[in-house]
Design brief:
This protein has about 325 residues and is mainly beta. It contains 2 helices and 19 strands. Helix content is about 5%, strand content about 40%. The strands form 4 sheets. Strands 1, 3, 5, 6, 8 and 9 form a 6-stranded mixed sheet that branches. It has a 5-stranded antiparallel sheet with strand order 13-14-10-16-17, with no helix packed on it. The relative contact order is 0.15.
């Protein structure tokens, strides 16, 4: 089950904390391209691996099916098949959308990729049941999005391409997404405003403060500059997603708590900030530890990734109660 995440980190080698790839399985056929783009994909993965020591990736999440951009189902004889018939979606003001259906003849999990109108990107695993059924809630950026869902069977890929239009929306300056492996249960994403601390009701955007309502940040009484947690996951894989438009000046901190039952877990966070895309990965995050993923200095948009972890076991009551950051 770690194989798809493995390939994301192999392809995003510079995203894996500047060291060796985080995930250990090597089922490289889990992320695939259309047949006419396979060579380009292999070259991209090789180039990324060659720059592994350069630190977190700032070039966007690689497209798993480059050149396959027309909405519809793309496959062929011997490839997996799907039951999907509609590939142009208008979702109004919603900032997330659940893609669901069934694929046949695929092997293992699939992968997803979302690209927003300003080059924002995010990608990861589509957990797929033994009967081929799936349901995955994905972040959708403001405006016109291209979404790809990809499965393979070891012979050739199935690529589902969607044009997803999100209207009546505010363009986010920050979109922060975390995902993890099958043993994480779960990773909790936090965005802490300047001067704030983790799990504070006023200064932290997380599951307790940002799902059905939002803390009042920025201009008091103006909801346009308040943070939102629009996807929250309570078991394996994720994603979890937070977005913010109109951030105030200062240093924001992105943190992840591991709420799991005890098994160390691997995962990564993708930060779309002010036109940049940076992915930072963590290996073996222990239960009740907190990872400081990055700081974001605004308005400059400087992202400073971190591998700092804090053992919050002694200060854990419904989440970490330590004075972090």
């Amino acid at each position: 089950m770690r194989s798809v995440l493995t390939v994301w980190c192999l392809t995003l080698a510079t995203a894996c904390g500047g060291g060796s790839p985080v995930f250990t399985d090597a089922a490289s056929d889990a992320v695939v391209t259309a047949a006419d783009a396979a060579t380009n994909a292999d070259d991209a993965a090789t180039d990324a691996a060659a720059t592994d020591a350069a630190g977190p990736d700032a070039g966007g999440v690689p497209d798993p099916a480059p050149g396959v951009d027309t909405p519809g189902e793309h496959g062929g004889t011997g490839c997996p098949d799907s039951n999907q018939t509609s590939f142009s979606l208008s979702i109004g003001a919603a900032s997330s959308y659940t893609f669901s259906g069934q694929v046949s003849s695929a092997v293992g999990d699939g992968v997803f990729w979302v690209r927003g109108p300003a080059g924002e990107t995010v990608g990861g695993t589509i957990e797929t049941a033994g009967d081929g059924s799936y349901a995955k809630t994905l972040p959708i950026f403001c405006g016109a999005n291209l979404v790809k869902l990809v499965w393979n069977n070891g012979t050739c890929p199935l690529v589902l391409v969607y044009a997803v239009d999100r209207t009546t929306c505010i363009t986010a300056d920050f979109t922060i997404t975390t995902q993890w492996d099958e043993v994480g249960d779960d990773w909790e994403l936090h965005l802490v405003k300047p001067g704030g601390r983790i799990n504070d009701a006023v200064t932290d955007c997380t599951w307790t403060t940002c799902i059905t309502a939002s803390p009042d940040w920025g201009v008091m009484g103006d909801p346009a500059d308040d943070p939102h947690k629009d996807i929250d996951d309570e078991d394996a894989f994720g994603p979890e997603n937070i977005w913010l438009a109109g951030p105030e000046t200062g240093r924001y901190t992105v943190l992840v708590e591991h709420w799991g039952p005890g098994t160390p877990s691997d995962g990564f966070v993708t930060l779309n900030v002010g036109g940049q895309v940076v992915t930072v990965a963590m290996q073996d995050l222990t239960s009740h530890f907190v990872w400081t993923v990055a700081t974001i200095d605004w308005p400059g948009g400087t992202i400073t990734p971190s591998q700092s972890v804090f053992d919050c076991t002694a200060s854990w009551t419904g989440g970490c109660t330590a004075q972090l950051p």
